[in-house]
Amino acid sequence: MAEDGLAKFSLRQNVDLMVERAFSVLELDEGLANAIRACQAVIQLTFPVEIKGKVEVFSGWRAVHSTHRLPVKGGIRFAPIVDQDEVEGLASLMTYKCAIVDVPFGGSKGGLKIDPRNYTREEMQRITRRFARELASRGFLSPALNVPAPDVGTGQREMAWIADTYKQLFPEDINYQACVTGKPVHHGGIRGRVEATGRGVQYGIHEFFRHGADVKEAGLNPGLGGQRVVVQGFGNVGFHAAKFLSEEDEAKIIAIVERDGFLFHEDGINVAQAREYLTANDSLRGYPDAEFCEDRDLGLEIDCDILIPAALEGVIHSENADRIKARLIVEAANGPITFEADEILKKKGVAVLPDSLMNAGGVVVSYFEWIRNLSHIRFGRIERRFDEMRGQHIISALESMTNNKVPDWMRSEIIRGADELDLVRSGLDDTMRLAYNEIREQKLTHDAVTDLRTAAYVIAVRKISRSYLDLGVY
Ligand code: NAD
User: Fold this and answer.
1) What superfamily would CATH give domain 39-187?
2) On the chain, which terminus has fewer CB atoms closer than 10 Å, C or N?
3) What predicted TM-score, i.e. pTM, was given to this entire model?
4) 257 lines ligand 1 (CB under 6 A)
């Protein structure tokens, strides 16, 4: 799904070229580097489905990049332009991402060549179920081996169909719900998964802004409030990131770039309203409270503080990298900056928070969902009331010792037991903070590492190569 064929290298080549920098910093043995680079398995599926009385043939792929940890994990995208090379590249990115955020999975990715907008709900259900059956019958869908999740063009609805198809095929598998993540909560999903990737983007940006030196180096003013933000892609990831940043951090979303143009308002756009408009009209054109411009490419070049590409790969390339005016680029999408553009941005001094960290929120919360499914219990179910009771005892003890009443607001804060959403957010925030700091530390302590992306890959490759050597897979 690279943008308009402007990228010189494919997504997979771009990822490999970027990881190459880490291989060279670590002076990795060439054979081991080749083993890490290689995609271990990929399956192409071609299957017929009857649509409106006619047989249509669909093609899909599922790539498994590395099985050094099992299961392997990665989204399934439904898009008109998807191919084997893209799926392999995205699978490798998943391996590195999981290693960076310490999620014990290998990397995988799937894709089905389809434009979901051309089919009814019932047709999509038949196509998705057939794809799931093909994957499961070949060992590419299983709680122990390969666990998909939502990506571009898929969401809770598709994940519920996939889980149900697997259950019908393997009713004796007590862990059937764990065969896929990103399910609706009432079908074994976890609270906070839908917005997890956008939430992770927000937490990653928070951590960046906690480090004054990083903010200064990027040429930004301290504090997230008032920063002018441009978001490209107003789907699951872009919408949630924009919503949280504007509603909770008071950042100004001055432009939203979509497939047919972009919205602009210097004072900021109301994100929830714009999203409602997009859902109702399938376009942002005609939205009353901001200017609409048809040239979507110009949207990326707007003068802003933070640019968040959250649509597809290869959108910042050698042709437009020089014209990017943002001081900070936050990669919410996978692979939005090509290798060549990355080099140009580095020379320009633009700070880049890499995809391998910034969009990891999805897989982190998917990991929580998978654990929830395997343990067959909602997080917080057992301890919540006990924690509340203990909080109540602490307050009673305080009051009797001081002869003073604890104010109501403090009482409710102290006695509140954490529910599932609190725990998911806490786990995600902790993961993003720890990973950012590990990457930052790597950059600061290694002369040959001059950017956060290379630092992240150095950490990932170090962990993966250790695992390959320990296990003797090499
Ligand atoms: P989505 O399908 O929900 O949204 C994508 C949005 O981008 C849509 O609104 C679409 O109209 C828009 N778009 C398409 N082409 C565009 C273009 N040329 N210019 C501007 N906008 C365009 O997909 P998503 O789940 O939000 O995923 C977006 C990116 O984030 C992808 O790179 C995906 O791999 C990555 N990602 C997603 C998740 C997740 O949990 N969904 C997790 C990690 C990474």
Assistant:
1) Leucine Dehydrogenase, chain A, domain 1 (3.40.50.10860)
2) C
3) 0.95
4) yes
